[in-house]
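[job 4417] fold queue: 2 targets
>>> target A
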Amino acid sequence: MTNSIGDIEEADCIFITGSNTTSSHPIIADRVYRAKEKGARVIVADPRRIHIARLADVHVQQKLGTDVALLNGIMHVILEQGWQDQEFIDQRCEGFESLRDTVKQYSPSVVEGITGVPAGDIERVAELYARANAASILYCMGITQHTTGVDNVKSLANLAMLTGNIGRPGTGLNPLRGQNNVQGACDMGGLPNVFSGYQQVSNPEANSKFASAWQAELSDKPGLPIPDMLAGLEDKSVQGLYVLGENPVMSDPDSDHVSHALQQARFVVVQDIFLTETAQMAHVVLPGVSFAEKDGTFTNTERRVMRVRKAVEPVGDSRQDWEIIQDLSNRLGYSMSYSSPEEIMQEIAQLTPSYGGITYQRLEGDGLQWPCPDTGHPGTKILHQERFARGLGLFHGVEHQAPAESVDQEYPYWLTTGRIYTHYHTGTMTHNSPTLEREAPEGWMEIHPDDARKLGVRTGDRVRVASRRGSVEAAAYVTEDISPGTVFMTFHYVESNANVLTNPATDPIARIPEYKVCAVSLEKAA
């Protein structure tokens, strides 16, 4: 997030897109409610009538995979009306001509034809967002999990810069992270092309710095993203897989293919706190510890680094994750001798400029938000206040592109996926909670009444859902909250896992799969 969670309350307008905020980020949703009580206008763009859409001043239901067209249409109106912040554009940005020339082609009437959103609603969204004194954008995986995920985010950045809604209280471009420490994992180099702090492995200076600190020769070539790891298992270029706190058999697209790839591996190790569907396929399972059994830090969605303290002793034979990794490293020939998580944090600060001023002592209380380059720095609540990290903010002229696959006679319905409030991700933890399991013991498929009538199904009837990759059965839930021709499912349940159906096609830059849109067929199950 460029801004802070509390800062959301300072917004005059909040634009929520690709985020089922109340289900997936209830604490953030609470901030939106507070802002609404203070008079903020709320815009929601989502193909479903999600809960937070009920408090929106405007809710638009764009067709799946048409986010770029919608955003270009909004920016077209802003430029036509002269609502852009030209001073901000001239002083702090570059590439404006490319954006202006691109969005000229996206009039509200043209965009209505692409997105299904009425032209009048596009104009209303543009006015509410552009004419606010401080407008905040909140987005989540409904924006990123597309083959055009990077383009979607670039378009949101275009919108924020076009109106000068960046670097000030109540503004910003604010991605809501999908898991509690995914920000911290990325910060620490949990990506195939970077060291900690997003320092590129291909950068000679960064590579030399880490090689010196670790007294090891390091490759300057990026590692493999998950889709390439799975392909490597099948073509034998990858021999083994070490899975730490992940359940790809449930969470990755085209899950039957994932299982097949794992079956080809010579060796699979899973380190986790429960025997997940992936762990059941492993040759070795290493029992790690839960958050309550460990010391260390988490970094949350607003870049806030916070202490985690052990509340209970590890259960059974489970051990600290860092200790397991250290012992494995020592047995494989690379010596590690850390004595505590705090010692590891000290090394992080030495090697990671954005964490340079973060120590355990300074994390007492509310923690610190990076960048925090030295111990005299208070942390950073709002990014890009005076300048962007690259100097000038770069506009991109982004064209709409269709999803990787389309509906046809064989697969005439669109499928989108997401979460519900009672369960989390693959259900590894929440299915082990009797209370949560009782709330939602089985998966279902949302379907519009018009489509339900065509199929002859009612709420509770079983429906067979099939894509080009596989099929599952789920109970129907008939609701007008979903658009005609579109159905919604979750990936929380192994017996009705939407990821059996989803498309493994990925964004060419970020390599994020297109979880949010694929083509399916429906039929009433026997």
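>>> target B
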Amino acid sequence: MERRLNTTRPVARVGTIEDIVAIESRPYDELVTARNIYDLFRATAHHAGDAKALTVLRSEDPTDIAVTLTHHEMLSEITRAANMFHQLGLAPSQGVAAFLAPTLADLPSLLWGAQVAGAASSINYLLSRQAIFDLLTAEGAMLLVVPARQIDEMCWSKALGALEAVPSLRHVIVIGGDTEGLSGYMRLDDALAGCGGDGLGFEPTADRDDICALFHTGGTTGRPKLVRLTHGNHIHAAFGFAQVFGYDQGDVVLNGFPFFHVGGTMTVGLSVIAAGGHVIVPSPYGMRLAPVVERYWDIVAHYKATVVGGVPTSIGAVTNSWKPGADVSSVRMAVTGGAVLPKAVGSRFSAATGITLYETYGMTETAAAIAFNPGHGTPISGSVGFRAPFSETRILRLHSATPEICDPNESGLVQVRGPQVFPGYLDPAHNVGTLDPDGWLTTGDVGYLTPDERLFLTGREKDLIVRSGHNIDPAAIEDVANQFAGVEISAAVGMPDQYAGEVPALFVVATAGADLDMVQLRQHLDSHVHEPPARPKSILRIDALPVTAVGKLFKPTLRDMAISEKVRLEAVRICGPEVQVQVDVRLDERKHTVVDVTVSGASARQLTELDAALKPLPQSYAIRRAPKDE
């Protein structure tokens, strides 16, 4: 007997933790019947088949449409893609199809089709060719999907040589153009020929625990870190976002994230479509293109978008492109996540647009779903909201030998458990210290829960640098720096930044007696760090790295030094090179970082400008004039 079709549409208006608890009073399998993500697309096509599901734009012009699909049409395209991938060798728990492409018209259906047939891996096209080949090799990719040269020269060029370099790779599938006669390459249209969209030609998995996606996060060349996500992870994340944000068939949601990011595939992707909504992709390259940012509000008005948003840097960018009088009457909420939202950025956005901004919190390892400010509630500034339905969040005391639960309002290490939490990395060695046998995921973030269970984040224990929502593993920088002649050791940390939240800063210790050429070191890093966002903004030479009593590197001290360097750079920029700055970084009683700044040689006007420049940063800054200047 066929399972009852059921979308993830909201079952209640969620505004408080009590509303989430009320949802949990019903059996999970009664609320969510899907056993695989194909069930979600089938259910939505059944309930909202003629409604629009996906629109992908070619450019910033809202009328320049590459494709518009209804939910019926999307199901058909996903079915065709799944049948194609199955014919090419993918099967549940067998085979990976990798994607190296911007969000072209065909990409979402192909990606979800690969997840139905087997597993999909969407790779960041900004990575170097060698890093891409390392990822393909680590995940055992069987197929690689790329755009034709005339569509995207960069992606095409980076894929050249993959068949020879990656032992598991069988075919390269080319979207929208010619194969140029290359052996092992096939045109997408040819691969799809004969693949029907009326029904699957194979039996999809019925096991929610089967892997359907791989995402890369952190890692360096030769040791990529690959996150495995299951059908169940996707289903629960889609369900959670729909319940807490209130996604339904009436929603039109702008998705400016890339599809190699869980924000693009889940937060404003599958979650919206599974609830019957309409996803608008504003360009193949999302919000990376300046013209898209400039015309963002035109796109909002044209499609009568109900949900807008992006990472904090995107929020800042679209605030700058706001035009008074823009029609945002259709918008019910703006969503941000992926990095700490500077208060000044959020305040400027809401003041300019009149739209309420809702923060959310997630990780690749949780399919983006940990905590949400409910769409029908009142967001609290600085809070990332309540836990996802049917999940748990707990706060552990830092540096405790055994797990000790923190009291309400006491900061500690954030852990999460639930159906959205991944089963582990592809390499089990990466699980150590991250995923325990009881299913608790250690996020690496530090925060506290209020008595009404709102989560506030106050910092990070982990060393990842989060730049505009993108995770950067410090080792990706340190490994390259340490190979440079004259560098004994190095360490990278995040430096606060008004636009990106934080950017990499590198501290280097020179080999004894070495004449370390800092200019050549900079050139070396620019040439060999694979991701441009990971290239350090500041490189500072120090005598020795700070260590603990047992000799372990102590990065909190370096992070404080990076804050001090940021203050110095801003002071010199505003006040001139003669300015003198004393910086003291400390934690207040709530474990929030407070920075006391004493400035000598600056005018009152310059101090006011410096205060304004530092206010958008995540820390709290207190600026005073040196006594001798008073």
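[job 4417] complete. Note on B: The radius of gyration is 25 Å.
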